[in-house]
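Supplementary notes (optional reading)

For those who missed the lab, this is the record we used. Protein: Zn(2)-C6 fungal-type domain-containing protein. Length: 725 residues.
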Amino acid sequence: MNTEPSSVASSWAGSAAGMSAHRKERGHIAQRACEVCRRRKQKCDEEKPTCGYCSKAQLECDYGSPKPTKKDKTLVELLDLVTNINQHTSHIPEISAQLLRLRDNIPTLLPTESSAGSDVASSTATVQPSTQTGLSLAPRHQAARRYVSTLDRILSWPAVRQTLETVRPKIPGIQAIFEGPESSSVLFDQRRDTRCLFRGGLESMGAQDRIALGIAPDDPRPLQMTSISPHILAERIRIYFNTFNRIHPVLDRQYFMEVVFPGVVHNRFCENAASTLLCLVMALAEVAVADVPGRGFSAFQGHQDGEPSNTAEYIEYRPPGIEFFNEARRRLGFSVGECSLENVQMFILTGLYYESCSRHMEFWNMIISASLACQALIASNSAEMYAAHADQICRAFWYCSIMETGIQRDLELPLTGLDKLQSRIQLPQFPDYVTTTDELLRVHMYNDRMSHYGEIFVYQISLRNLAVKIRNGLMQVAEAPIANLGQTMPGPDDLLRTTVDKLGRELEQWHGSLPDHLSWDRNLPSAMYSAPDLQPSSPSFYAHSMYAADAMDALHSAPMNNFIGADITNPNANIGFPNSDGVLLAIMRSNYYHVESMLYRPFAYKALHEHPDNLTETDLSATTRFLHSCVLWPIMVPPASQHKRMIPCLYSWSQNILGALIVLHLSLINPTLSKIRQSHCRQGFEQEAELTIEWGTAWIRDLKDADRTAQRCWMILKGLYRLDG
């Protein structure tokens, strides 16, 4: 029953095998015949260059062009596609460069304002007047945002740049400022300064200076540090501690008077860090004495006419205390490598003297040296933190930290790494020593406590920490990624408002934590800030000051009397130095306003560069806070403004004041900002703004002849406000 199918299968298999064998036996099939064989419709043996038939018939053999197969057509299409892509992609590098330039020239939607400076990579675009109320910033190029906290970069804001470029007569060198390097050039700009500090020591002192030190003017012996009586030295030390040390509290009065001072006198001013430190204290005391009413001094001394000693290469500059400072510089090299507390303090005081002479680059170098020396001291011997002078190490650490982060915030200069030790260093305690048997020293220490200088320094540290937190928070906002389609991440505007609101509450908490004797009413009417209407003790009081006379004349006030005291020659006098305390409070409160302006500055950038319809009520309120933080800085008001040599980082304050004055000018001419000023600012703001312009102008005018940073600020301010001088 199954045989038939089997036979059929066998038959089919055999037939298939035969067919396969038949196919294998077939000859070669021509793939491309010549034209002659094609016409003859005969097989061509495809011999090259002439087939067999054409060779025998002596005919021209032409194979013609091969016909493309389906596979060949696909390859040709792919080749054409690749060629087309190459033609389009060859322009990508050029297009990319153009986009990068456009990105730098177009402000971003979120006013990262580079804040304080380089809004969107220091934009070089200008905003035309017709677009002030209709500027649309729809594209959200997050990658273009870069937060920089330098207020000097406010000059690169499009609205600011356009305003300054349209000032007539034209501001000299304004384009160089826009196109110049980063704001850290403020320090290095003094390389073009032809002034040189006088290099003579005590031996070069004149008769009047000798008399002030209790030395006969006709004494033929060369004047040395050992020639000065301990009584005079102690008096100058007292002046230093009642002025500079309250503002820069890096030394301890009792430790210095009972340990350092006697040791230096006993060793006759040998070449060590302690002797160098005492020379620096004497130099800074002379700077403080130079601010006493009636004791004016010439900025350039050593010339018969009181003029600078001018040569082809430099102008010799002789500020107060330079002879003592040079005595310190002569000893500095012998102790520069020591790892001691005095070494750290020595660098700090050297920097303070350089800054009092407007030598900003040297000041920065000394602060960096002090920070590195402080790190070495702490790392080399942990037992130092438990020694009797441990609190002074804490003071030096936090002072360097405040200076470092302030310089980084204002000039974008790098840190030394000192901040990495912050968790290991406690806040200074400023202990009240009661074991001293020196009654005069006890009185001076009591006056120190009454000035609250230690308490203020601790609050300055906490404000510094908050300023660092604000800067880091705004940088995180600027660098936050933008949500892609479908993601629920908050937008950059919302993130900015949330961050600023949180940090603003912390700033309010800092102000609320101040005790009553340090707190102040931020909404105090502007009339309460007016300077007292005092007359100078003599018409020529400012005639020999390093600061211009017309600057102070514009304020119609004179320096407070009693800055040093009624009788500086009486070592038993109980002198409180009210004005040095006033300068200290002014610095703390001005720092608060500066930090507040840094926090709310992005909203001012947004108000200047966006359509008013895009501004929320939160934006308007924050911009108002920014405007309020730009007025009535106590540092601009007498007596603080009349003792600028004691104020740290003068170059930063000059730039910050310039930024505030530029903003106040824009709040009058920019439609959006002007409307916010008129409708949202507190009552009396107009008077506050006018006083701020008056005092800020006086500040910069006062320094312009002695400070290159102030000179640059003055050129801008002079053109913007059409000032004389």
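If you only remember one thing from this example: The first helix runs from residue 3 to 25.
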